[in-house]
Each structure stands twice: as structure tokens, then as C-alpha cells.
């Protein structure tokens, strides 16, 4: 047996591994993640390294491969745990070991520590005063200024000396060399937490919240560690439950990872946490500088912070004594990586928690179908919050049928009711949020007169329009000609929907010229701090209307928002994705939940061309269980997750013929493995991007382990196979 060993665990060294022979006496002991002593270099100097892979194949002549000397048993440390976790991700999500390692190692490059310098006198004050005359005689005005300032002020910051006193570096160096002054230097951390407006309040938990928090804390006291699904309606105060449990974990000397789905959530979330726990809280996100990320990495390693808040990458924070993982808005798609390895934060968090014997809390007003099914089956502990905190009432919801609007001659994207309510709120100086449901809209064809959507007769997902005039199903490959008139009602109003946030912003400014409108989408938030600036503006009443895509509906709490308008509610409903009804229900429920979180009752207008669809009706009534019961019955009927597990294999190539040959070959291979259900190959949702063509194959099996072995079988078939020379193959589980 041979082991691939990495000497330096820093990110830039990950591609450099060295192969060693495992001696017989260590074969049953050495494993992936083990720290071992090895002879290194020509002098065979004994150093330490981590085992990142093992196998029976020698990469070099066997006689030239050195042997591992011994196992380091007194310290495995965080690096060993990270390597073990990377290996688990590699096996469960389909990637190379290096790709998995680069995912779990949180800091990519070492960044020099920031230093703060200050200056003080190195001679008695009387002696310094005597020197002033000498400086004047020699016309050394800069030295005079600095020494005179230091006689007045005992210690002066270096930045002030250079900027306010205009003292050059050479003058400072000269005085230091003459031992007249002394330069003090201390390292400090870059702090990414915005200190402004750190408001908060001590909240008394209501009976439901107290019962939920006490149940989890009692389990912790009794060393019972499990995964909890905290299902609370919008505004029920799930964060207060998290805070109460987190406080107990911190008091026991342990640390907490708090995952949130969007960078946009950071500001409000951090304010509440910082108010409660002060400097023990920090954040991680992709918009931070390398230096800021590196400093949080160091602080975590040293146990100097107790709570880290961030998106899915924060899950790999190297805490020495982790005690709890919380995943807020656990249903969010942002917890799924869109790069290889395509891991999902939820099962990775649960895997980490099982290893460390700690609890995981999953929280959501609209839990994923997968999580709720697991809770009903007893895999997770279900805790339910049914009341809004502070006696706030759920908003009144109107579902507007846009087919009726068209028949009444209203061709605007705003229904008559929504227009009237916007005018009313502007008059009352109350705030409005308008959400454009754009997720997954590209390509689906629907009728504005009767609401009919062109769907696959085999897969119950919408057909996608392609440039070649075809409507195609991206699950089974069914295709038909595009349509110009509705097959149900004969209307000519059948086409794809095209509207964006900029168009809505222009319409609002035209319709309501005195209204102050803010837009929040990928364009307005691409720069660092963009999310925070827009949300702070809106929170400070610098705008009346906030227009945006799904990023405006994720957990924000604005007590003066009394109207939420959802434009084109069914845009996400007919994406060519089996999860489309689930995502639509979640988006609509979360959007509606932004209204009426203060003292005033909120109102919500949901605009739809298919108002009777179960996802829209149940969202309007905030009826999660009603939605779940209908959705799970469809999943059972069609064999979609969580009933069956699903592996999506995507093949891409600039050569269309090579792609066709490779996909047919891989499909034939998949047919022979593990009695799985195999669909495809069919064209990907977007078949051609930048002259690269893509096809997909779907493989289903009840057992995840069997699907994992299918992946390994296919991957071994692809590696080194000339058929796949110019074809890239990617794997994605349960997507």
C-alpha cells in the first residue's frame, strides 16, 4: 500500500504530494488524515506530513519509494480532520481529492499580519527638552517638531506622525538610530464586522420559543446530540431561539457556526448577534478581502472568537472546540455549491456534527421537502413555532388573476389592486417591497389568456424553448415544435415572459413620480458593501419602494413594510426543474412574510396567470403542511428525491459529435450498473454556451450508497478513455 502525503497544508502547496510506502506494521493504522513522520530529501531529514490518499498503485519505481517512519499519535489536529472531511466529500459528491481539499481549507493564501506602530521617547523628558535647542541651532525642524510633540503626548500613532506632523521616514529612522525615540509595533486583526448601528434589544422569549430552546438545551445537558428542524412561520422569532441556545454553548467554552444563505443577510444578522455577544462574533463571506478572511481564520484557530456567521463556506471554519452548527433558512438553494465538488451544506454539516458529537439546528418557515420528510420519518427532531413573535399578525394575502386583468384591458405588469395599494401606502408614508420572481424563468412558454403552460407529458416539468424552434424536456429528451397559438384556448398571447427589475423601476417612476425607488439585484450589489448600503438606506426610510429579485425576500426584517407585491408569481413555477413548485412555494411564502412584521397589519398581492396551482394557493395561506402533502405525493408518483436519490451527469464538449458518442457510451455503461433507473442522454437546459455543447444523463436509485458507487464506476470508466479526450464530465447528486 502506498500513501500520498502533503508536507505543507497551506493552500498553495496542495498540488504537491509525495508518495511513500506504508510498512506492514502501519497498514492497519494509517488512514486518510493521519499525521505521519517521514524521511524527506537527500538527507532524509525526519519531518511530518498528512496522508491525503491511499492506493495500491506505485507512481514511481518501487525501489525508489521511501517508507513512512511512524504515526504521530499525540496530535492529529484540525488539518487531519479537514483532510478526512475532504475525503468524505470526494466520495459523496464526485470530485478529485484536490478539489475537495481546496473546498474545505478555508484560507487560500497566507497573508501578512497587519501591524500598528506607535512612537514614544526613549530618553527622560528633561533630556529631550534640552535637545530642542540643539535641533533649532542645526535647523533640524522636523526632529524639533516630533520631539516637542512627544514631550506633550507620551505615545503618538505612526500614521498621525506621518500625516499630521509631516515627519518623513528618514527623520524617524535617524532619531531611532540615535536612541532618542522608540518605535513600538503590535499586530492587530482586520475586523470585517461593521461597528456602526450595532443596535439591539433583550427579547423575552414567548412560551413557544422558550419551549423550543429548552428542549434543545436539555438534550445538550444530557449529551443527546441530534439534528433539529425548527419549522416556524415567518416572523415567529427563530433567531431568538438560536441566540438562546448559542448563549448556552458559548458559556460552556465551545464555538458556534451560524450559516446564512445570502451575503445580504449579514448586516442585520450580525447586528443582533453582536449586540448579544460583542467581539466574540465575526463574519466570513466572499466579498471580504484576503487579509480579512485570513485574520478570521487565525482568530478561529486560536479560539479568540465564539461565533462565525457566513454562507456555506463558513462551515469549514477551523474551530478547535466546535459545539453547535445552525443553518438558517435551510431550504435555500445557496447552500448547494455550483462548482465541483457540488456539495450541499446540510448533509456536510450533519456529517461534521456526528463526528464531533454536537447538535445541528436547521431553521426555516418553508423547510425543504427533503428535510421535512426526514423529520416526519424521525431522522430529524421536528420543533414547530406557530405564532408570530410580539403578537404580530400574518398579512392579508390577495391572489390576483392576471388573465382577468388582460380581459379587462389592463396590459400593465401591475394589477389594478396592486396599483391602488401602492398609492395608499405612499400616501400613508409606509414602505413597500416589490419582488420580481425571475428564478428559472428562461425558456418556458405560457399563455397570458388562460394560463396554460407547455409541459412534458412524461415528466411533469415545463418544456424549454430552444433557438431551433423546438420545445424540449431536459429530463427525458421529449421534444415538439414550438407554438404560436395556445392549444387550450387559441389565444395569440402565448410566449415567454420578459421583464426585469430595471423595467419595473422605470414603470414605478413613471406611475409614481414622487416615490423614492431603490433597486436591489445583481447589478446594484456587485461591489463590496452594495447589499448593506441598499438595505441600510431602506431601513433608514431613505426610500419608499424597494424593488428586487429573490435577494430582497431572504429574512430581512423591516417593521414599516406594510405592502409586498409579487410580480409574475408563476415565473419560477414552470422552470424545467422537478423542484419548481417547491421553490415557488418557498419564494412566495418568504416574500409574503416580509409584510406586517411591525405593529401595522400587512397586505400582500400575489399576481399569477395560474392562481389555482397548489403551490400558490398554499403559499397565500402560509399552509406549509398542505403544500408538502401534495408535493410529496407527486414526488412518490414520479420517483423524484427524496423518494429516490438522483445523480445528474453533465457531459460538455466543443465537438458535438464527440459529445454524442461519449454520452451514448456513458449511458450504456450506466445501464449495466446497480439496477438504477437511467434517463437520457438529453440536451442540457442551455445546450450551447460559448461554443460548448452540453448533455445530461439522470440516474436514480433508492440507496445513496449505490448511487455513489455508480458515480465511482462511471468515473473510472471515463478516466483515460479516448472517447472522453475532449469531453468534460461533471457529477451532481440530488439536483
UniProtKB/TrEMBL annotation:
<dbReference type="GO" id="GO:0006302">
    <property type="term" value="P:double-strand break repair"/>
</dbReference>
<feature type="domain" description="Helicase ATP-binding">
    <location>
        <begin position="219"/>
        <end position="385"/>
    </location>
</feature>
<dbReference type="GO" id="GO:0008270">
    <property type="term" value="F:zinc ion binding"/>
</dbReference>
<dbReference type="GO" id="GO:0043138">
    <property type="term" value="F:3'-5' DNA helicase activity"/>
</dbReference>
<feature type="binding site">
    <location>
        <position position="450"/>
    </location>
    <ligand>
        <name>Zn(2+) 1</name>
    </ligand>
</feature>
<dbReference type="GO" id="GO:0006310">
    <property type="term" value="P:DNA recombination"/>
</dbReference>
<dbReference type="Pfam" id="PF18319">
    <property type="entry name" value="Zn_ribbon_PriA"/>
</dbReference>
<keyword id="KW-0378">Hydrolase</keyword>
<dbReference type="GO" id="GO:0005524">
    <property type="term" value="F:ATP binding"/>
</dbReference>
<dbReference type="Pfam" id="PF17764">
    <property type="entry name" value="PriA_3primeBD"/>
</dbReference>
<dbReference type="InterPro" id="IPR041222">
    <property type="entry name" value="PriA_3primeBD"/>
</dbReference>
<dbReference type="GO" id="GO:1990077">
    <property type="term" value="C:primosome complex"/>
</dbReference>
<keyword id="KW-0347">Helicase</keyword>
<feature type="domain" description="Helicase C-terminal">
    <location>
        <begin position="478"/>
        <end position="640"/>
    </location>
</feature>
<feature type="binding site">
    <location>
        <position position="489"/>
    </location>
    <ligand>
        <name>Zn(2+) 1</name>
    </ligand>
</feature>
<dbReference type="InterPro" id="IPR040498">
    <property type="entry name" value="PriA_CRR"/>
</dbReference>
<feature type="binding site">
    <location>
        <position position="476"/>
    </location>
    <ligand>
        <name>Zn(2+) 2</name>
    </ligand>
</feature>
<dbReference type="InterPro" id="IPR042115">
    <property type="entry name" value="PriA_3primeBD_sf"/>
</dbReference>
<keyword id="KW-0235">DNA replication</keyword>
<keyword id="KW-0413">Isomerase</keyword>
<protein>
    <recommendedName>
        <fullName>Replication restart protein PriA</fullName>
        <ecNumber>5.6.2.4</ecNumber>
    </recommendedName>
</protein>
<dbReference type="Pfam" id="PF04851">
    <property type="entry name" value="ResIII"/>
</dbReference>
<feature type="binding site">
    <location>
        <position position="486"/>
    </location>
    <ligand>
        <name>Zn(2+) 1</name>
    </ligand>
</feature>
<dbReference type="InterPro" id="IPR005259">
    <property type="entry name" value="PriA"/>
</dbReference>
<dbReference type="InterPro" id="IPR014001">
    <property type="entry name" value="Helicase_ATP-bd"/>
</dbReference>
<feature type="binding site">
    <location>
        <position position="459"/>
    </location>
    <ligand>
        <name>Zn(2+) 2</name>
    </ligand>
</feature>
<keyword id="KW-0862">Zinc</keyword>
<comment type="function">
    <text>Initiates the restart of stalled replication forks, which reloads the replicative helicase on sites other than the origin of replication. Recognizes and binds to abandoned replication forks and remodels them to uncover a helicase loading site. Promotes assembly of the primosome at these replication forks.</text>
</comment>
<dbReference type="InterPro" id="IPR027417">
    <property type="entry name" value="P-loop_NTPase"/>
</dbReference>
<dbReference type="GO" id="GO:0006270">
    <property type="term" value="P:DNA replication initiation"/>
</dbReference>
<keyword id="KW-0639">Primosome</keyword>
<keyword id="KW-0067">ATP-binding</keyword>
<comment type="subunit">
    <text>Component of the replication restart primosome.</text>
</comment>
<dbReference type="GO" id="GO:0003677">
    <property type="term" value="F:DNA binding"/>
</dbReference>
<comment type="similarity">
    <text>Belongs to the helicase family. PriA subfamily.</text>
</comment>
<feature type="binding site">
    <location>
        <position position="456"/>
    </location>
    <ligand>
        <name>Zn(2+) 2</name>
    </ligand>
</feature>
<dbReference type="GO" id="GO:0006269">
    <property type="term" value="P:DNA replication, synthesis of primer"/>
</dbReference>
<feature type="binding site">
    <location>
        <position position="447"/>
    </location>
    <ligand>
        <name>Zn(2+) 1</name>
    </ligand>
</feature>
<dbReference type="InterPro" id="IPR006935">
    <property type="entry name" value="Helicase/UvrB_N"/>
</dbReference>
<dbReference type="Pfam" id="PF18074">
    <property type="entry name" value="PriA_C"/>
</dbReference>
<dbReference type="GO" id="GO:0016887">
    <property type="term" value="F:ATP hydrolysis activity"/>
</dbReference>
<dbReference type="InterPro" id="IPR001650">
    <property type="entry name" value="Helicase_C-like"/>
</dbReference>
